[in-house]
Amino acid sequence: MIPWQFDGAAILSQLQCAGMTSVLKLMQNGFPSRTSFGSLYSSYQAKLPPKLARMDPRLFAKCLFRALGLDQHDFQFGLTRVFFRAGKFSEFDQMMKQDPESMSSLIVKVNEWLVKARFRQAQYAVWSVIKLKNKIAYRIAQVTRLQSAARGHLARQRFSKQIVVYRKACALLKSSKEIKKILLRLNEASRVKYTSSAHSTIRDLEKLVAHVKLAKPEQLEKAENAYEHYVKRVSTMIADLKRQQKNDELEELERKRKEAEEKERQEAERKRREEEEKENQRRLEEQKQRDQKAHEAQLAEQIRKAAVEKEEAEKREQQERLDVMVSNRLADADGVALMPVPSAPPDSASSSMRLRRGHFDLTHWTYAELRDAINNSMVMQLLGPNIGDLKKRSPVKRLSPTTVARIMIQGIAALRDVHTLGYIHRDVKPANMCFGITQNTRHVLKLVDYGMVRRFKNPDGTRRKARNKPGFRGTLRYSSIRVHDGKEQVPADDLVSMAYSGAELLLVNLPWKLVCTEDIKQAKIDFQVPNSPFLLLTGPFFSVFCGAVFSLRSTDEPDHSSLQALLTDMTGGKSLREAYDWEENYRDTFGSSTTESV
Predict the structure, then answer these.
(1) Active site members
(2) Domain Myosin motor spans what residues (predicted)?
(3) Which of 5, 232, 356, 500 is most buried, judged by most C-beta within 10 A?
(4) What is the domain class of 383-589 according to CATH?
């Protein structure tokens, strides 16, 4: 270079050799600030501990930048300097500040970051070792797989013919399993006939498979011939078995046809005998009716004759009495005494002839006649308050278990009488149960309001046919689930209503009193579940009684006496004639369960 002479190419070459191009690129990319590693390291060297003092200035600078929270993109390293991105002047000033406290805090952060960085490097090293181990194991497995495939290919090439024969033999053995299935579908005689040959064939096939598997190359031709022989043998046996199965099915159909004909013949014979018996029974009934009518006619004739004879005897007596009076008068006139003639005794046959009147049969009454007779014979002024009103008068709005048990026992007895006559009440509830007010009836329960009763039995004692769509009858709160379902009511529904009434007397209110109409049915279903919470509140004896009532089916004839027996232990030893809660100022109700209204 010549002094005072500008040489552009040499100058640019010198600047390029000095690294100025890299500096300009860094500054152009947004790294205007810079400082050298040595100056930065020398400013902190006096404060560094021995471990950090041995560090390279470049590494120390990198640790310092990371301790300040700078990202990898916030700075770039040159050969001797480090460059900072624009906007990082605050970190740069903090780093260049010569305050001892700031320098000490930065040194502590550098030390912490260095420890964490070394720990991360150790983690990465361990992870790399594990990854390398897995990669080595994977490659070993792949090599083993390649070796296995190659060896298998070579073995298949060597034993290909034997493998083909072995597979065919295995397929034939598998297809021979159909023989066992066909044997199971044969009848007993055919199964005994073919079992031994079938099992022998299967055993021979199993031996063939084992022989082919262990055969030498020179024995394969013999194995192939044996395979062909067994193919024909198995096919022939399967065909024979199928043919025999078809014959057995035809024989079975013929047997069933004959059995059906025999059954039809026996049924026809049974019907003929039943018709003959019915005809004989009808003739006997007709003969019995004729004899009855003849007997009644004879009896009426005897009664008529007795009446005529009695009338003639009375006339004869009257005439004889008049004749005696006339004779007496004539004798008095002539002075002659006459002997009195005894009158003839009355006819014993006519005096003993009486008409016997039968018991009054209520089964021939219509619903309207029965309702009018009951309503006309019941005087409401002779009854006390209903059970519902008596419960409301209680201070705790319920009755004691002993009182409820005795009320239920008498209520079941009343329902038993109604059911015996062939009727159902259909509106059982506390408001329709009253006690009398006289001394003899004050402990006698009366079941009233028969406005909804309906006959469920015919006069001959048979059940009436249920209607398809019977209307709703009763009180919604006490009606059974069958009533909600729109089914015909039966005696069991009256007993369910009686059970609901007893639960209300014990629990203050039924669980579904405050439930909307659409949810009442579901509430009753939940209540009837065994050991449900509300059912357990009624007590163990009443829960057992409710379980027996809720289990009654529509076709069952309720055993009223057994249901009453289930409530006997609940009475506490009190008889039906002893005082009830309202007669003792509801004294016992305070000692019973303290269940609140739901």
Answers:
(1) 427
(2) 1-97
(3) 500
(4) mainly alpha
